[in-house]
Design brief:
Layout lengths: L1 H22 L5 E7 L8 E8 L6 E8 L2 E7 L6 E5 L8 E2 L8 E5 L6 E5 L2
Antiparallel strand pairs: 1-2, 3-4, 4-7, 5-6, 5-8
Length: 121
């Protein structure tokens, strides 16, 4: 009993160290196999996949040049979709252009006030 508990504790600690190092990197995927039992060295208890979470998606800059609005963002995971509407609280969001893997999008400057958001996967 004591040996089994000690092995489980070591496996749990190893898993936490690997998970923390994996989550500290961007776009890393790792598979971890945890074995159990003193006499069952080949029996798989769990087969886990750990993927680092993408940083939060946020708009970093909005600029106007000539008749074009450029919205830039970072984080999240593409493809991305820039959307707009003329009210911050109501109305339907409409797509601006098509989906993109770029981290910026453009829109024609109009007479109405526009609010922008970016969707990612």
């Amino acid at each position: 009993m004591r040996v089994r508990q000690k092995r489980f504790t070591i496996c749990a600690k190893l898993f936490n160290v690997i998970r923390e190092k994996t989550l500290a990197r961007k776009n890393v995927s790792m598979q971890i196999r945890i074995f159990r039992g003193a006499n069952q060295a080949g029996m798989i208890l769990d087969d886990l996949s750990v993927q680092a979470a993408a940083p939060a998606l946020r708009i970093t800059n909005v600029s106007v040049a000539g008749g074009t609005v450029t919205v830039s963002w970072q984080g999240g995971q593409g493809p991305y979709q820039l959307q707009r509407r003329n009210s911050v609280t109501s109305g339907t969001w409409e797509n601006v252009g098509s989906t993109t893997s770029s981290t910026q999008g453009t829109d024609a400057l109009g007479m109405d006030v526009m609010f922008y958001r970016v969707l990612g996967n």
